[in-house]
Structure formats: C-alpha cells, structure tokens
Write a sequence for this structure.
C-alpha cells in the first residue's frame, strides 16, 4: 500500500459504479475489501469480495473487521475496523423489486452500514445518494424543477420510493455524524456513465435532449466518481455533508443559459451559471474538494 493509502471497505463494488470506482481507488494506493452479494466482475482486478447481505446487521458488524485478502493471515494479527467505509450497495432504481422491498432493503442496509461503521470507530464514511432526490427523475408525468442550478441546498421533494430511500440515507448519515462526530458525506450521484456507454448513448443524449430531462442533462463518468471518492477521503473534518457528484458540463450542444431559456422557460435560474455548467451543478465538489474532471463527454463523442 502506498503511503497515505487507506484501508477501505466498499459495499456494492460489483455493480455498475463500483467496478470502476474500486480500480480508481486501488490505483491511488488504497486497499479495498468489497462487500457484495456477487463477485467482482473482473477476476483479474485483484479485488476480494466477501459475500455479505447488508440488510443483516450482524453480517455487517462482522464483515467490517475482515482481512482484505488471504495475505492478511501472514501479518499475524486480526484485522481491525477500516479507515473508510464507502457504501454503494442498493437497489439502484425503482422497478427492480416491489417498492416496499426497495425501501426496506435500501434503508435497512444504509442504516446497518452507517451504524456499524460509526460504532466501530470509523472516522470517514461515504454513502451513495442520488440525483433522483431532486424530484423529477422518477416523478409521475412531467414535473418541473423548482429552479436551476440544482445544488445541495435545494428543497428535495421526490415522489418515488427509491429516491425516498436515498433521502432516508442522507438523514441517517446526518444523525450518526452528529452522534459520533465522524465525517459522513452523502454523494448525490448523477446518472453513471461507463466508458463503453459514450459511443452507444451520447448520440441520443446530445441530439434528443428531451430524453435527458429527468437526469437534468447531467451525468457522472464512473472513473471520475472514483476521483470524487478519493478526494472525499482526503478531505476530513467536514462532519455531515451532501455533495452533488456530477461532471462539469451540460450534455447539450447549446450553452446552459441558452438551452434552459429555450427548454425550461418557466423555471427560474437563481445565479449566473458557467457557459456549459451542468444544471445538476458540481460547483461544491470543485470548490471544496478540488475536483477536476478527466472525462468530459466531448472527449468521447463529437456532436
Ligand atoms: N447507476 C446510476 O446511474 C446511479 C445514479 C445515482 C445513484 N446511484 C447509486 O449509486 C450506487 C451504485 O449504483 P450502481 O449503478 O453501481 O448499482 P448496481 O445495481 O449496478 O450495483 C449495486 C450492487 O449492490 C449489491 N447489493 C444490492 N443489495 C445488496 C445487499 N443487500 N447486500 C450486499 N450487496 C448488495 C448488488 O449485488 C450490486 O452489485 C447505488 O447506491 C445507487 O443507488 C446510481
């Protein structure tokens, strides 16, 4: 492990986001144990997965003091709680399971992870929240955003169960950070884009912008999400925080102000926005964490 590298327990690392975020964390010198129901998809990545059902609190408490790989046994001492816990496991949208199961599974797993980590003395916890909390992604019919840009102080008001489960996760984070004085950051993650998806999906995203309204014409590159997690880990001492986790720019050809004026004429814009700033703005991670995106969509698709 490189100096400064942390011992990280990561949940849900076998999923769409985690399979890119974990390699990004390993590249930056951290050590990672993956807790998931299924194996990490790339067997060559050197990621050890402990099959753990996070809705069972006993399993979560136990898993947090597991070796990171079999070499752990050579060190001659039992593993202690990790430096960092990153919780991504979830039913990652509605309509995978019935709503009550989505709510129960997500809220229970998030509670169990935050509680166990806090009670075991973990000082830094990151929790996946979602763009859906801004209330339009899974709303019934066409509903309007209250204003642009969407930032962390927005009065989030989702209609749907998945987003509600994510809001409960944010509240749980706030409660435990207040009780334990640790850092718990909720990441309102935008629509996650994997490397192979630019070529396949961006021609539609960019040329038919009406198809991206529910995502507020914003996205997060899965590898840039890895950078965001690493920057959070380096920035301790902020207590409970919410961070939008998105890339810098809008997924349209027109500049932001022009685009919003044309497509969302009734929604107020509350401050001057950057020429191509994403409506689901990442200003806070740029200013507070020093995020510098590496994967602007224009590198992969030229409209
Ligand atoms: N994909 C997106 O566009 C997006 C957008 C915003 C937020 N998010 C959030 O980011 C996180 C990661 O999303 P993703 O797209 O990688 O999801 P995913 O569905 O691809 O992966 C989720 C992983 O969690 C695991 N998991 C589910 N329930 C579990 C349990 N009880 N115990 C252990 N593991 C369990 C699954 O096996 C899976 O590997 C989720 O919390 C999701 O809600 C995703």
């Amino acid at each position: 492990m490189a100096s400064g590298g942390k011992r990280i327990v990561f949940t849900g690392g076998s999923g769409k986001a985690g399979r890119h975020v974990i390699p990004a964390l390993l590249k930056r010198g951290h050590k990672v144990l993956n807790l998931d129901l299924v194996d990490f998809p790339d067997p060559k990545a050197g990621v050890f997965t402990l099959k753990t059902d996070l809705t069972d609190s006993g399993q979560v408490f136990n898993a947090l003091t597991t070796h990171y790989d079999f070499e752990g046994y050579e060190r001659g001492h039992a593993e202690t709680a990790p430096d960092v816990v990153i919780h991504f496991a979830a039913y990652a949208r509605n309509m995978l399971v019935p709503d009550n199961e989505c709510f129960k599974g997500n809220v229970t797993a998030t509670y169990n992870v935050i509680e166990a980590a806090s009670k075991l003395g973990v000082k830094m916890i990151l929790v996946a929240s979602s763009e859906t909390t801004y209330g339009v992604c899974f709303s019934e019919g066409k509903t309007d955003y209250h204003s642009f840009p969407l930032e962390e102080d927005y009065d989030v008001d989702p209609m749907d169960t998945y987003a509600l489960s994510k809001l409960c996760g944010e509240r749980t984070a706030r409660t435990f950070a207040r009780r334990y004085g640790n850092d718990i950051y909720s990441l309102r993650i935008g629509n996650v884009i994997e490397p192979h998806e630019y070529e396949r999906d961006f021609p539609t995203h960019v040329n038919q912008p009406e198809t991206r309204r529910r995502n507020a014409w914003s996205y997060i590159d899965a590898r840039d999400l890895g950078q965001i997690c690493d920057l959070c880990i380096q920035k301790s001492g902020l207590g409970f925080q919410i961070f939008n986790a998105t890339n810098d720019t809008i997924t349209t050809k027109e500049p932001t102000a022009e685009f919003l004026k044309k497509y969302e004429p009734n929604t107020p814009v509350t401050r001057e926005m950057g020429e191509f700033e994403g409506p689901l703005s990442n200003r806070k991670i740029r200013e507070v964490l020093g995020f510098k995106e590496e994967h602007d969509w224009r590198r992969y698709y030229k409209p």
